[in-house]
């Protein structure tokens, strides 16, 4: 029921962990299942995302989408990363089963929350 890409990112997630002295941190939770995702950003002085790490307490689809969103965000400007949608993350994983689509919401939402936190703490 899961694509090879989902299984790959679930069994071998990229960019797991925390960034010490992160420039932005975002955390979101899914009220229906109780899963939590936290994203840490490192942003250079040109507003390009240099590094992203994540910690997710959640299901396999949440882990896979976290991993994918970190790969998609690294190297993007903050404005470009803000355009990343939950659907784009799910598509990059070759789709998710319909009953698991809500899990992908956490990934882009956590990224956007981290960008918002970055902007707020840097007065942008
Ligand atoms: Fe909670 Fe997937 S079941 S995020």
Characterise the protein shown here.
The protein has five helices and three strands. By secondary structure, the chain is an alpha+beta fold. It has one domain (4-121): Sufe protein. Chain: A (Alpha-Beta Complex), CATH 3.90.1010.10. A three-stranded antiparallel β-sheet has the order 1-2-3. A hairpin with a 6-residue loop joins strand 1 (24-29) and strand 2 (36-43). Helix 2 (60-73) crosses helix 5 (101-121) and helix 4 (86-92) crosses helix 5 (101-121). It is globular, with a radius of gyration of 13 Å. Residues 30, 33, 35, 58-59, 61-62, 103, 106 line the site of FE2/S2 (inorganic) cluster (FES).
Assess the beta-strand content as a share of residues. Answer: 15-25%
Indicate the radius of gyration in whole angstroms.
13 Å
List the domain count as a whole number. 1
List SSEs in N-to-C order. HEEEHHHH
Q: Which sequence of strands runs across the widest sheet?
A: 1-2-3
Rounded mean pLDDT is: 96
Strand count, sense and closure of the main sheet?
3 strands, antiparallel
Sequence-ordered SSE layout with sheet pairings:
Elements: H1 4-11, E1 24-29, E2 36-43, E3 49-57, H2 60-73, H3 78-82, H4 86-92, H5 101-121
The chain binds FE2/S2 (inorganic) cluster (FES).
Give a quick rundown of the structure.
This protein is α+β, with helices and mostly antiparallel strands and 124 residues long. The chain has helices spanning 4-11, 60-73, 78-82, 86-92, 101-121, and strands spanning 24-29, 36-43, 49-57.
């Amino acid at each position: 029921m899961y694509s090879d890409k989902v299984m790959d990112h679930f069994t071998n997630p990229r960019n797991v962990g925390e960034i010490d002295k992160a420039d932005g941190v975002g955390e979101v939770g899914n009220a229906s299942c109780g899963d939590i995702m936290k994203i840490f950003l490192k942003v250079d002085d040109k507003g390009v995302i240099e590094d992203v790490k994540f910690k997710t307490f959640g299901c396999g689809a949440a882990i896979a989408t976290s991993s994918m969103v970190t790969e998609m965000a690294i190297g993007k400007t903050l404005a470009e990363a803000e355009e990343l949608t939950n659907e784009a993350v799910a598509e990059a994983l070759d789709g998710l089963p319909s009953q698991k689509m809500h899990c992908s919401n956490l990934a882009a939402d956590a990224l956007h929350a981290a960008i918002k936190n970055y902007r707020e703490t840097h007065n942008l």
